[in-house]
Structure formats: C-alpha cells, structure tokens
Design brief:
Layout lengths: L4 H27 L2 H5 E10 L5 E8 L11 E7 H10 L4 H20 L8 E7 L3 E6 L2 E4 H4 L20 H20 L3 E2 L8 E4 L4 E3 L6 E2 H5 L31 H4 L9 H16 L10 H9 L11 H10 L10 H5 L2 H4 L2 H10 L6 H14 L5 H15 L6 H12 L4 H18 L2 H9 L1 H7 L2 H17 L3 H9 L1 H5 L4 H18 L3 H14 L5 H17 L3 H18 L1 H12 L10 H21 L1
Helix pairs in contact: 6-9, 16-17, 16-18, 17-19, 19-22, 21-22, 21-24, 22-25, 24-25, 24-26, 25-27, 26-27, 27-28, 27-29, 28-29
Length: about 625
C-alpha cells in the first residue's frame, strides 16, 4: 500500500500542535501566568479591585521578555487558591467563586479595550492558570483605598503608605482627573461604570488618578433600556460582610437607583452619586455612608442626611456635592458640569497643576511665563504634591533643551527630598540624557548639584553617566566649571575604586593645577590634591609632590604657598615622619624664603618644619 505523504505530514503537524500545547500548558502551570514569566516581582505596593482581591507588585522585565513601555511596571496577581479557601471559610458556594472570577475577567477585558489617559494602561493582558490570575499595567503607587488607610491584602506595608495623608490640593487634582475620565466614559465610550469607589480608583507612580474596576460596567444604552435580574444588584436587609467574594459594588458608594429592587432602568448619573460619596470620603476623611451592606441602614442614612454632615466640607463644594448625592438621579450634575465647580475653578494652585498636566502641549513662551510664576508658588505645595504632581511633568519636559535652564533647578531641588530608590526610579532616568548633552550653564548647574546626584545614584549609574559628565567639566575651559568640579572631587572619590580614581580623575586634577592661568583654579586643585592624599598609595602621593613642586616653581603667591603647606600636612599625617622628612621637607624648606609669606604664614611654615625635624630626631 502506497504511503500518502500528505496525510502523514498533516498527522505529524497535528500531533506536534497537540504536544506543543500540552507542553506550553504544563510549563505555564509550573511557572504561573504569562506576566509572572515575563516580569520579575519586586515589592508589593498595594491592593485593589473588588474586595481589594488584587495584590499589586512593582516588577521589572526579565531578560528576553518582550519590551515594555515602562522601565518598571505593576503586576497584578490574584491567588485563586487563597480565594477558594476564603470562599470555603465564608460558607459560600463554588458558583459564587466562579461568578467573582468572571467579574475579574470582565474588568481586565474592558481595561484592554478602553484607551484613555484616565483609564489604567494595560501592558500585558490578563492570563491565568489553575492557581492564579495575573496582568501587567503601567506602574501604580496604590489604590485610593490603600491611600485612605485600608490595607487589606497587603503583606508588608510600604513605608509610603504608613500614616499617609493627602492634602486637599492633591485630592482636588485627583478628583478633577477622575471627573474628566467619567465624562469620557459617559459621552464617548457610552459606559456606566457602576462601581466608583476607593477600590476602583488608582494612583499611578506619576501621581495621576485613574479608573479601573470595570467588572460591573454596562453600556449606557443597555442600562437605560432596562436591566435583567442578573445585571441588577441584590443587597441584604441585614448586615452582611461579603468582602471575601464581593459580587456587587460596595453599598456605601452605590447610587440608590441601583439599590432599589424596583428600579430596572439606570443611567450614567449613578456614577455621579458614587463619585460624590468618594469625594466626601476623601475630603471629610470618613465615609458618608457606613451601612455594612445593610439596605435599611443605607436608606435611612440617605433619607435623613442633614446639612450637619457637610460641616467638614469646603463651603464652595457643599452645594455641588449635595446635588451629586441627590436621591433623584435627574438632579445630579454631569461629570463635565462638576469640573466647572468653583471648588476647582477658583484655586490658583490647582490651575498650576492643570497647566503642568498639559505642559508638553504648550509653546516655549507659555512655558517660560508659567515657570516664572511657579518658582514663586511652589513653596506652598506640600511634599507629596511636589513629588507626585510637579516632578513628573517637569522631568518629561527636560527633553526640551530651551527650557532646561529653568526646569533643571526645580527638578534638582525636589530631588533633594527623595530617597535613593525613588530618585533612581523616577528622576534619574530623566536626568541621564541631560548628563550626556549638558554644556555651559546647564553643565555648571549639574556640577553644583553633583553631591546630591552622587549620593543618590547607584555605582552603575555613577560610572556610566555621572563620571563622564564630570570628566567633561574637568576638561572644559570655563574656570567656573573647573572650580566647581574640583570642589566635588572628594565626595566623588569616595565612591570610586582607586584604579578608576587614578585613571579618570587624578590626572585631570594634576593638569588643572599645572596648566591653569586662573589663581582660584590652581588653589582649588591643590586643595583637592591634599584632600585626596588619604585615598592614595605611595606612588600617587609622590605624584602629588611632583605637581606641587612644579606649581611652586612658577607661582609663589601666598594662596598657592599656603595650599602647598596644606598638602604637606596631609601627607605628614597619612605617611608619617620618615616619609615627610625624606620627601616633604626638601620641598617645603626652600619656600621659607618666599617674601610673599606674611609673619603668621611664615610661622606656620616654621612650625611644620620644626615638628617634622623634632620627631625625626626623637626617632633617631
């Protein structure tokens, strides 16, 4: 019987595909969902989503993984096994668990489809195994729920969240961003979110407030056309703690038309009620409603809401907030109308932050005028606003060479309050291109702040980016640059190994001492050589003595002679009397006749010579 090669080839291909799929599935079950394979988890930063079920981690791409648009991302992990155990402890059915996982899948799918600056950006879509679900997004700082002090499902609490308090300006800016996103959802995407709460609003690492938690979202047309029983929410008349598997939004933030069982038609106005509850909680620092998922408590609290409840709310927000919290959906303002509230409109500092949001879109003249005003205003900003609202747009604008001289001082001043890890993550990447291209006044400014940069940078960045920049300053012809870089040489030398110090730095300091025609540069170079003595071996110290000898051969000015004495004292302390007597005294002794020394300076020279010769005699 003849062998049908075509059939055999097809059979092999089919078998190969089955084997490949089986191997892939087996590998996935061992290594976890795809985001866990492509990204290395670092620290947990927070939790979020319904019931704060997602654990959110900072992560970086693994070697060989697909490139990501961010140097670090947030990987969201949901442990299915832990969820199953929590469900069993709560006495809930497997069907409830499956329904909750379907909500999570719906949320992740919606996030991928929605493209807007106010919606969390998905870097890698949801993937799951039998044990876990995971997805990757732009870097997230925390959920608003975490920022308000609810740290459920957070293992080791990050220090940034411990005792964290947001100022009113930061809250205003965040609320305004969420309002603009809601306007997009309602009028462009034609969606009702239906679950706006602290669990579904997230603060990114750059300080933006963005929406997630779209598991309960419906199209506005579908919502206003009438909801099916499965799309309606069914809250209990008694206290229920369903945080293990929340199959409906938090009642404390849910609009009454979504709670009343008789209402099957709802619109986007339900989001404005939830948004009002969120705004109230953020500003008053307590929830407006605290009803433990009990509908009777909820309805009573809403029905008997008094003006006293708004005593902690700014007067220019009270009227708008009361309209947002109206039982009558028609009376609530739209998201766009809310952005026009005097609460936002009359705040000069908020307008400054809004300008920063769109800084890249402005021309250089507008930016210049704004930055002049900002330099007088930013002392009124608290540290969180400076770090998360002001610094990111300024760092982005550093690419504009024309604006660098105005922006760089602000960036470096804010950076002073950053810890090393935060500086390396958020500020240093924006500075690296500036290090490479800086010249003139920009280079001078960077060198003046070199101590800050050196202390906050890693060894790798120090050698790769900061050292080349400082080398350019040594080699520049501007005496101001030469003086400044000489003053920063000693802090730099403490971070470098001796070999690199002798190769890259020491020859340039010698060169400035010998070749300059500017007295201040020579003086600073000689001081620098004296300060470097403790870092050097005998060969390096003898090189310093040779340079000092050549300098004093042509320059007998008092500053140069006194710097020479300083170098001599440093060598004496480092190397001892034998070395000083053999190598230093022959250099110092002829200088005693220099007529440029005054009486006090001559006395200091004589004291040094006497000390060395006296100790030398006692040793002998």
């Amino acid at each position: 019987m003849a062998l049908n090669m075509k059939t055999l080839t097809q059979a092999f291909a089919k078998a190969s595909a089955v084997i490949e799929k089986t191997v892939s599935t087996t590998v996935q079950e061992v290594t976890g969902p795809r985001p866990l394979q492509d990204f290395e988890l670092l620290d947990q930063v927070g939790s979020g989503g319904p019931g704060l079920a997602w654990r959110i981690y900072t992560a970086r791409p693994r070697d060989g993984a697909p490139s990501a648009p961010y140097p670090v991302v947030s990987v969201w992990v949901l442990d299915k096994r832990a969820l199953a155990e929590a469900r069993a402890r709560a006495g809930l059915s497997k069907a409830a668990e499956d329904a909750f996982l379907d909500l999570v899948r719906a949320d992740a799918a919606r996030l991928v489809r929605l493209r807007h600056p106010g919606v969390l950006h998905v870097v890698q879509a949801l993937d799951e195994t039998k044990a876990a679900m995971a997805m990757a997004t732009e870097p997230v700082f925390a959920s608003v729920s975490n920022a308000l002090g609810c740290l459920d499902n957070v293992g080791k609490v990050p220090k940034e969240l411990k005792g964290m308090e947001m100022g009113l300006l930061e809250i205003k800016h965040g609320l305004l961003q969420v309002a603009e996103t809601l306007d997009f959802l309602h009028n462009n995407a034609h969606l009702a979110h239906r679950a706006i709460s602290p669990e579904t609003v997230f603060i990114t690492s750059s300080g933006s407030w963005k929406l997630g938690g779209f598991g309960f979202a419906l199209s506005v047309d579908q919502a206003t056309g009438g909801l099916t029983s499965s799309q309606q929410f069914h809250y209990s008349d008694y206290d229920v703690e369903d945080t293990a598997l929340p199959l409906q939004p938090l009642l404390n933030y849910t609009a009454p038309e979504l709670v009343r069982s008789g209402d099957s038609k709802v619109g986007s106005a339900c989001d404005m009620f939830s948004f009002g509850c969120l705004a109230y909680h953020l500003i008053a620092r307590r929830p407006l409603l605290d009803c433990h998922n009990n509908v009777k408590m909820y309805m009573n609290a809403l029905t008997y809401l008094t003006s006293e409840a708004f005593s902690n709310i700014p007067s220019d927000l009270v009227s708008d907030l009361q309209k947002m919290l109206s039982m009558d959906a028609v009376s609530r303002p739209s998201a766009m109308a809310f952005t026009g509230s005097s609460f936002f409109r009359d705040d000069t500092r908020l307008r400054a932050l809004r300008f920063l949001d769109h800084l890249l879109e402005r021309d250089n003249m507008q930016k210049t005028e704004f930055l002049k005003a900002l330099s007088d205003m930013w002392k009124d900003f608290d540290s969180r606003v400076l770090r998360y609202k002001v610094l990111p747009p300024l760092c982005a604008e550093l690419r504009n060479m024309v604006m660098q001289p105005m922006i760089l001082p602000m960036v470096l001043t804010i950076a002073e309050s950053q810890d090393k890890a935060d500086f390396e993550l958020s500020t240093l990447p924006a500075l690296v291109p500036v290090f490479t291209s800086a010249s003139g006044e920009t280079l001078l400014l960077l060198v003046k702040h070199a101590d800050l940069i050196i202390n906050k940078a890693t060894q790798e960045h120090l050698i790769s980016h900061i050292l080349p920049m400082l080398v350019r300053a040594y080699d520049d012809n501007d005496p101001r640059l030469q003086e400044e870089v000489l003053r920063r040489t000693v802090p730099l030398s403490r971070q470098l190994d001796i070999k690199l110090l002798k190769q890259a730095i020491l020859p340039r300091v010698h060169g400035l001492a010998l070749k300059t025609t500017v007295a201040a540069v020579r003086v600073n170079a000689l001081r620098c050589l004296g300060d470097l003595v403790p870092s050097l071996d005998k060969e390096g110290i003898l090189g310093i003595l040779e340079t000092v000898k050549r300098c004093t051969a042509v320059d007998h000015s008092a500053p140069t002679l006194m710097c020479t004495l300083g170098v001599a004292n440093a060598i004496y302390k480092q190397c001892g009397v034998e070395f000083a007597a053999e190598y230093v005294i022959p250099l110092i002794f002829p200088l005693l006749t220099a007529h440029q020394l005054n009486v006090q300076q001559f006395a200091k020279y004589m004291l040094f010579v006497k000390d060395v010769t006296r100790l030398k005699r006692s040793v002998v």
